[in-house]
Specification:
The chain has 201 residues and is an all-alpha fold. It has helices at 3-16, 18-30, 69-81, 85-98, 103-115, 119-132, 137-149, 153-166, 171-183, 187-200. It is 67% helix and 0% strand. Helix 6 runs antiparallel to helix 7 and helix 7 runs antiparallel to helix 8 (153-166). The radius of gyration is 17 Å and the shape is elongated.
């Protein structure tokens, strides 16, 4: 893991919490937003991964028939780790029926929806999660990427600007905003953000 990649990982985990942080890092690495190796990159404009959920490596277990949102959410985490993003989403959706405003479950649901290519759903769930945690860097960052995928560039720019306002010393966040500014045709501002990122590295 490169030094810059380690910095981003530690920042994300420290801000969003250990469990949510690892989900966030996993998502970011899969999308190419960070590289936990010699080269580190953060860009919301890279092409998304295949939206199809990877087939499970073993027979799919049944969704727990319980009314406990934590058990359902944990089951979703297990299924996500196994590559069964569709069943993970089913578990998070079931958990949200009992706790519809739980920011952590909404965040997990948003991440899985991103994996499945449901950017509208991801944007909606992340927006709900941010109602109770409006300064959560992980949620803002992920929603910014969902909005970028939806070509909602002004809104994506607002999310990355908010992230920079909370953590102005992270080069990767300036790089992310620069990518959006480039797509908006604001090259001078994009170059300025890249300059700021270079000074922080």
């Amino acid at each position: 893991m490169g030094h810059h990649g380690l910095r981003i990982l530690l920042v994300i985990v420290s801000i969003v919490g250990l469990a949510s942080g690892y989900l966030m890092v996993e998502f970011a690495e899969r999308w190419g937003l960070i590289r936990l190796g010699p080269a580190t990159r953060l860009s919301p404009t890279l092409p998304p991964p295949d939206a199809k959920s990877a087939p499970p490596s073993s027979p799919r277990p049944a969704l727990p028939a319980v009314a406990d949102p934590r058990i359902l959410s944990d089951f979703g985490d297990t299924r996500k780790a196994a590559g069964d993003h569709q069943q993970a989403l089913e578990a998070y959706t079931a958990a949200l029926r009992f706790r519809p405003q739980d920011a952590d479950i909404l965040f997990r649901s948003g991440l899985v929806r991103m994996e499945l290519g449901d950017y509208q759903g991801a944007n909606a769930h992340l927006s709900l999660a941010l109602v109770s945690r409006p300064r959560d860097v992980g949620m803002l960052f992920t929603r910014g990427n969902a909005r970028a995928a939806l070509n909602q560039l002004d809104d994506a720019h607002k999310d990355f600007t908010a992230v920079i306002g909370i953590m102005p010393q992270q080069a990767a966040f300036y790089q992310a905003r620069a990518s959006i500014l480039e797509r908006l045709g604001r090259k001078a501002e994009a170059d300025a953000d890249r300059g700021k990122a270079a000074k922080l590295k």
